[in-house]
Amino acid sequence: MATLGGYLLSVRAGLFGFTEVRTTAGIAAGVIEVAAFAVLAVAAAVPAARPQPAGPARPRLPLARLQPSVPAAAATAAGVSALALALLGAAATQAGSPPPTAPSRAAAVLKTTTIGGATVLANAKGLTLYWFAPDTPARSACYGSCAAYWPPVTGRPAAGPAVTGHLGTIQRSNSQLQATYNGHPLYTYVGDSAPGQARGNNLNLNGGLWHEVTVTG
Asked: Mean pLDDT across the stretch 18-24?
């Protein structure tokens, strides 16, 4: 069970794999429609008034007493049906509306670690982050097999304690945002399997040199 636009929402798989979505407004509209059809059915069941021969007045049967109210019943049914259609339209509009977009969140809180006496930048898991010499502040040069070995840090970064310097983003060719630090797009290295490792530092791979990201004071 969930809520959508303030209405109760129930989702159930149908017999042939279809999804049935029901809202409070939709259920109310359905009930009103049933009531309207019931009124119409009563109106249809009432026979038309026939001329009565002159003579002593006869007692009116219960069904006959309903005859004068037939036009009013028909008008009521029409109004109720219109209301039901309006509710159904509102329910359909709300059910078809996309859910509110979740606010953009940071890819990870970046932090610092010390490796070989140097303070370097790390991701939330403590893995060392690297920059690639052929990159520019606005463009990454690492795609394809390069990105398989040096996964880009995607999303908007957030600075943890002791992280100084400028954090930003660039847009990759697949429209993903890649985090940057002081103008360098950030990457991890598949050769690092635990915090405190920097096996990718000063490697010349995939078309250029890789360096661990040192944190400026």
From this structure: 40
Cβ atoms 130, 124 nearer than 8 A: no
- Evaluate whether residue 58 is within a structural domain: no
Between residues 23 and 46, the one the model is more confident about = 46
Residue pair 153/132 in contact (Cβ under 8 Å)? The answer is no
Which residues are CB-neighbours of 202 under 8 A, at least 6 positions away?
Answer: 209, 210, 211
- Note whether 121 and 161 are same-domain residues: yes
Please name the residue ranges forming H helices in the chain.
Answer: 24-45, 62-66, 70-96, 145-149
Give residue 80's pLDDT: 52
- Domain range for residue 85? 2-48+64-96
Q: Under a CB-based contact definition with an 8 Å cutoff, are residues 205 and 141 in contact?
A: no
In this structure, the answer to whether residues 149 and 177 fall within a common structural domain is yes
- What was the pLDDT predicted at 90? 53
Domain contains 89: yes
Render pLDDT for 129-164 as a digit per residue (tens, 0 to 9).
999 999 999 999 999 999 999 999 999 999 998 999
Does residue 116 share a domain with residue 75? no
Show the tokens assigned to 133: 């010499």
CA-wise closest residue to 154 among 197, 190, 186, 117: 186
Over residues 185-196, mean pLDDT:
97
pLDDT value of residue 5: 40
Token couple for 9: 């929402």
Co-location of 145 and 199 in the same domain: yes
Q: Are 133 and 200 in contact (CB under 8 A)?
A: no
Query: 55 in a domain, yes or no?
Result: no
**Per the structure, how many domains does the chain have?**
2
